[in-house]
Give the backbone structure.
Amino acid sequence: MEKYQDSRDSGQGQSVSTTIFVASYEDVIVARQKVRELMNEMKFSLLDQTRVVTAVSELSRNIIVHAGKGEMTIIKYDESGRRGFRCIFEDKGPGIADIDLAMREGYSTTNSLGLGLSGSKKLCKNFSIQSTRGKGTRIEIAEWK
């Protein structure tokens, strides 16, 4: 089975997307590498790369821990003169019962430090989360220059 898939989009603003199937910690490494490569190609600073790759690592790992498997899609865009990319993390896991509680710093369902979601939000320029109990979770982050 392919671990990732690239596609081209001729639509306005979106040029290339890559989907990485996340089901193991090796897939987390692939997700990190793909985002770092894109950010390096787009000439983001090393600090920006480190910040975003940390969030990508955490959000990909959350897919494994809480849902078992899912995917991350990277979409490179150029909208209204703003160049950047989005990472969309999706799973069909149990969902998050209380998003407000899950976003609180220090809250954890796995006896961790509880910095995953709240920390990822702080590390990214844009962060959104939707979750439906019993159907899964979708988190989107975005970065631009």
About this structure: The chain is about 35% helix and 35% strand. The CA atoms of residues 23 and 47 lie 28 Å apart. The chain has a mean pLDDT of 87.
